[in-house]
Amino acid sequence: MRIIISPAKKMNVDSDSMAWESLPCFLDDAEKIMKWMKGLTLQEAREIWGCNEKLAVMNYRRFQEMDLRRNLTPALLSYEGIQYQYMAPMAFTKPAWDYVQQNLRILSGFYGVLKPLDGVTPYRLEMQARTGMNGKNGRLGAENLYEYWNGRIYREILDNSRIIINLASQEYSKCVEDYLSEEDRFITCIFGEMQKGKVIQKGTYAKMARGEMIRFLAENQVRQPEEMKDFRGLGYRFREELSGEEEYVFVKEIS
Asked: Where are the domains of the chain?
């Protein structure tokens, strides 16, 4: 069983808390993207990022000074988004770390696929980034990162079970979902609230719940999708009548 999650925009460097174990599997591709990014002007890079000038300058400098093999941080400790805060990997036991290293995969526009203990450096590049422009180092060879990665991310995350638990946003799950075969079982977890008879999913709360779910899976060494139904984090409860083979729906109980 494989679990997929999205990265976070905010990242940090922490080479002291825990050692990284391996380099990302698509490091050569990340180096190609890095070279292409280094060849863009600040304004071209800012157009890709769609951020303010301060963030653009910081991230542009990061790419210009980037080294993908030194001063690295384990991926699961590098990302700082809400999902990762609620996952709380720093509190993981050794069995929990072993579980996520085996089963959890982080999807990345820059790195492609990451294991939790892969060594990474901070970057900014979302999966939906437009990459067709020509920099001084030439073109990347694809109009966007979906086209660049093609089906390689999907093939890399598959294991023998062919079961994929989707805890990623639509932006990232798309690069797996578009390549599914009839042999695959792809289960998306929905975390929402009932409003006028419908399940409404709110971004921030869903990210919190995804992080809690990953911690639940790791702490309980969950091996089969059906075991996920016991999740009770943040007041969410599995709703059988709202769920199906491809969607597990968890509704927050309002007290």
From this structure: 2-252
